[in-house]
Amino acid sequence: MGNVQILLRQHVGAPCEAIVKAGDKVEKGTLIATPTGLGANIFSSVYGVVEEVLEDRIVIKPDEEQKDEFVPIKEGSKLEMVKEAGIVGMGGAGFPTGVKIGTDLHGGYILVNAAECEPGLRHNIQQIEEKTDITIRGLKYCMEISNAAKGIIAIKKKNEKAIEFLREAIKDEDNITIHLLPDIYPMGEERAVVRECLGKLLDPTQLPSAADAVVINCETLLRIAEAIELKKPCFSKNMTVIGKINGGNEPHVFMDVPVGTCVADMIEKAGGIDGTYGEIIMGGAFTGKSTTLDAPTTKTTGGIIVTVEFPDLHGAPVGLLVCACGGSEDRMRELCEKMNGKVVSVARCKQAVEPKPGAALKCENPGNCPGQAQKCLQFKKDGAEYIIIGNCSDCSNTVMGSAPKLKLKTFHQTDHVMRTIGHPLYRRLTVSKEVDQLPNGK
Known about the structure:
Layout: E1 4-7, E2 17-18, E3 25-26, E4 31-34, E5 42-43, E6 48-53, E7 57-62, H1 78-84, H2 97-100, E8 108-113, H3 123-130, H4 132-146, E9 148-156, H5 160-169, E10 176-181, H6 190-198, E11 213-217, H7 218-230, E12 236-243, E13 252-258, H8 263-269, E14 280-282, E15 289-291, E16 303-306, E17 317-322, H9 329-338, E18 342-348, E19 352-353, E20 362-363, H10 373-381, E21 386-389, H11 393-399, E22 409-412, H12 415-421
Parallel strand pairs: 8-9, 8-11, 9-10, 12-16, 17-18, 17-21, 21-22
Antiparallel strand pairs: 1-7, 2-4, 3-6, 4-5, 6-7, 12-13, 14-15, 14-16, 19-20
């Protein structure tokens, strides 16, 4: 293992402040940085020595021998232990969990996001299959802390094995049910989970609390249970490595990876890169960002994807359709540049709105699209020959209703990933958005 680089910003809010210095010996679970505002404690994920404390990270040289033992957090109320453990939303958003579940729901809902919506990732589903009971205990702790009367686990219907494990685990739980989701993107978006489970469509500016609910990622539940039962700080992460890998292009799942492990080390664990490649993505195909081999993983790193090489558009004019469900305009421009295209037109999905100036785009109704013909007409008028889209399954479907008629050749921002992992390209929607529920929600 190379040096571990632990970033001081791994969550929503302000960066943490280091409380260690170069030369300090640390153990797994040693508190090394604390919040300066909204944030969460950060712990060493290894036994070792602090080599450097930089403005944005703490660099630790791990000892050759690593023990399983860790420094426990101090005991307190369940909520205090969640806060002390430094747990954040581990599905990608990174909001401090102690703040989120510290809300009194007055008998509302804990909604579990087990959608694992990004194609190719599998660590959430594998956790449910291998650690079902502790995951359910994490849910029950959340319900207790936030005064929720009901827990609902939102999971895609295709994950039949995981669903069977869940059904067995909750068979005697009257206040915990399962809600089956269709296999379309983005069923894991927070407001999509609320809409699917509770039938309430929130405005882009509203939080799930407006529906008397809190949405929690299933790995976050695991870390909550570990903090309360084992006094374990949050210093490890489950993740999937997939793509152009010598070990094969199926998902390589790694549990309890030390936070701060570099991308290169994770790819090597999976077998190493197979020949030339297009790019490396940290996160998922839709919402992830390009990264480098020396980049460190964080509490929110879910996936590392090595892709095939990009097609060459030879300078052809390109229109970009930016969607709240996919990459930002900057990400779309980066992909266009990597494909050797020239941007001549940019449009937003008609449902993508800015909750406030400069904020990330939000979709008015995630996964349900009224059509994109007007945007395709704009691209044609502006002289585009190709369009790159970053839309959800339904938006991509509506684009394909008009783009071919206008002789616009379409690439989805995920195409290079889907081709790498053998997944169908996002074009026409063939999966029904309706899903039959299990009897009695179980």
